[in-house]
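Model the whole thing, not chain by chain.
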Amino acid sequence: MDLCSVSRIREMLAENGLSPRKSLGQNFLINPRIPAMIAERSADLARINVSGEARVGVIEIGPGIGALTAELAEVFDRVIAVEIDTGLAELFEKTFADFENVKLIVGDVMKTDVPALLEDHFGDILASGGSVSVCANLPYYITTPVIMKLLESFDPTGKCPFSSLTVMIQSEVADRLTARAGTPEYGSITASVSLRADVVKNFDVSPGSFYPPPKVTSTVISIIPHGGIRERFSDAPEDDIECRDFYDATSKIIDASFAQRRKTLTNALSGMYPKESVASALIRLGKNPDIRGERLSAEDFCALAFQLNTRKE
Ligand code: SAM
């Protein structure tokens, strides 16, 4: 099945009265090496912590014509694909009619109940010791909201159930997700994702690998969930309810710290905590009280939230 040929893609779209929709981030993969490389990386990560016989499943977001789906179907036991475009969905159903391990859900991933999807379509795989991953050439207009939604659909006191999320995104966003504190790329999304997962870059993909070509270079990253907030910060409360409150407080501090990036933390957080409290918490943590949020790692934000909310004077 050649789903990466530009002429074939044009033909399939035309036969179904379709054309690429920019508003839905439709840039289809036409370099056949790339879908195979993404699927292989995703499957390698899926198998790391499971036994040899265990089954592995994957959720694909935005399968489009199906170039990546075809490769995922080769290396995963089950593929559940979520596509918003009803025209593309019809085309996809025809192409994959004979694939027993591929199922399409027509809908908006941003409105999908992710834990329910996991339970309904992968409950058996998870119960028998297998793993579930996410893999996608993400529509760029919702890159960070989708990543945050997938990670935040689960309780922060434990590990997010996905073994990994291997996704193609704009290189600029990949730089932000992997940035170190104190660098210009570092921001709220870096620290927020770090509360849930570690991020690694896999490889870059040039605009010529897509039809139509996007204006930017893309990068395939893997987001690998860790054990949750308690793994990131060992002093996080043992009680689950207190720990959830602690996670929420940390997230709010991160958001407020980057809302006005050039402000010092004492000023940026002044709507939430008295300036003196923030200054003395920073001093207790060995930081300069005039520091800006962009210099704090996710662990530092946890420590600050702990000082401001949990620590008894
Ligand atoms: N996977 C295909 C490939 O690699 O060639 C297509 C990738 S294209 C970058 C993004 C796909 O996501 C399109 O098929 C688009 O219709 C779909 N999409 C856009 N927004 C979506 C949403 N909110 N929920 C589900 N799918 C969406």
